[in-house]
Amino acid sequence: MSAETKKQNLPVAVALTGASGAIYGVRLLQCLSAAGAETHVVVSDAARLVLKEEMNLSLRDLSAIPGVVTHGNGEVGACIASGSFLLRGAVVCPCSASSLGMIAQGVGATLIARLGAVALKERWPFILVPRESPYSTPFLENMKLLSLYGATILPASPSFYRQPKTIEELVDSVVDRVMVKLGFDALLPDWQGLKAER
Description:
There is one protein chain. 42% of the residues lie in helices and 15% in strands. By secondary structure, it is an alpha/beta fold. The chain has one domain: Rossmann fold, CATH 3.40.50. It has a 6-stranded parallel beta sheet with strand order 3-2-1-4-5-6, with helices on both faces.
């Protein structure tokens, strides 16, 4: 087995935090499942409330997605808290300002923060999907720090050039970028550019 094939078979870690936009995290889990990935999922206490409020879903519903393994945010001894457990990449989606700040400042008090610290030190693909707006100065400064540390800041900013008709299509325009950054096939067809007027 080649090194590239081995990397492609590694699991992915996904954290859902308390930012609004649970639909992005859930859709990402569904897409990773469809791609055959084993996905280790951490859901913060605040994210559980948002999941219930925005989508009427529970942690049990996420656990039912094929390939998903769930961990509590207090399980700081979980496998994904160590670089010895190899990952294809890690994603925080959606990512709240507080979770992003903890990761940027190296505060490893939760499993989500430890996952971020491990992804950074191991130089794995690490993607954070902030959704809150407007961005405060501390939030911007922490995003800048994480970008300098090697993370990818990928805001939940849907695109409109494909003329989406549904919320799901808007969500997929963001999730598609996350999947590609992790090395999976794109969900959407390649953009062919704008047709020049003649």
